[in-house]
Amino acid sequence: MSDNTPDTSAETNGRIDTLVKENDVVLFMKGTPLFPQCGFSSRAISILDHCGIAYESVDVLQDMEIRQGIKSYSDWPTIPQLYVKGEFLGGSDIMMEMFEAGELQETLDKAEVAKAE
Q: What is the CATH architecture of 8-110?
């Protein structure tokens, strides 16, 4: 007998892929930019806000499939995760290293990411 249940991992992967490709900058995080639910997500938001760019955020605490799926999508075990123009940059530690070295702003400028309004 065939199992007619939908393949949620493929469906979740598709949802993540759409979010990553349709937004210039997207941060998968715990909580929201106004109410981050962990220190790492809070640090990631502070960095992005300091860079003055427009970005989308996805609260993984609101969607367990996304929370698990993003880890396999990027092959990265932790959250937050930052994507710029479809490319995975890393989590908050990598964001901080890139920010302090001036590489994050350079990457965002090269990608011609929209400024925050």
A: 3-Layer(aba) Sandwich (3.40)
Specify the DSSP class assigned to residue 34: S
Q: How far apart are CA 16 and CA 20, in angstroms?
A: 6
Provide the 8-state DSSP code for 116. P
Predicted TM-score (pTM) of this structure: 0.91
Q: Which residue's entry shows tokens 């937004």? A: 23
**Is 7 in a helix, a strand, or coil?**
coil
- The rounded distance, in Å, linking the Cα atoms of 3 and 87 is 35
88-109 pLDDT, tens digit each: 999 999 999 999 999 999 999 9
Tokens 């702003």: give the residue: 105
For residues 27 and 56, what is the distance between their CA atoms, to the nearest angstrom? 6
Q: What angle do CA 75, 51, 115 make, to 5 degrees?
A: 100
Domain boundaries, the chain: 8-110
Our CA angle for 28, 76, 31, nearest 5°, is: 25
